[in-house]
Amino acid sequence: MKLWVLRHGEAEPYGSRPDSERALTTHGREEVLRSAARLMGKPVTAIYASPYLRAQETAQLVREALGFEPEIRTVDWLTPETDPDKVAEQLVSVSDVLLVSHNPLVGNLLSYLQHGAGYPPEKVSTAGLAELEHNELLIGSMKLNSLKHP
């Protein structure tokens, strides 16, 4: 089983809009396209994304870059403050998927899947892409194959 976790690209700064409505910047779009290139030829079977605008834009850019036909699966369990255990529960019956989300969830999830609870989060920049692997999803035992930043 492989799992890819992608943090959204750089977004507009906080302002008058709610956090969930912040869009990607031009730089953020460029970052995402560089990370999407690393997914070329990978056996991605589904793309799951947070409902937040910047994650949706990130997922769509990746989908287009890969020529990925299936629709993006928008899920509430990939929002920034979700507990990593809740995400892990959703991944039990899937494999070879890409998750598009936000910090602090991304950093916490990567740490949780590798080490279990109680470890510091991985540091993941905007459009950072992680690849994890294991025979099955076991909390604390997945191997981080790579963590690339654009």
Automatic annotation (TrEMBL):
<dbReference type="InterPro" id="IPR013078">
    <property type="entry name" value="His_Pase_superF_clade-1"/>
</dbReference>
<dbReference type="Pfam" id="PF00300">
    <property type="entry name" value="His_Phos_1"/>
</dbReference>
<dbReference type="InterPro" id="IPR004449">
    <property type="entry name" value="SixA"/>
</dbReference>
<dbReference type="InterPro" id="IPR029033">
    <property type="entry name" value="His_PPase_superfam"/>
</dbReference>
<protein>
    <submittedName>
        <fullName>Phosphohistidine phosphatase SixA</fullName>
    </submittedName>
</protein>
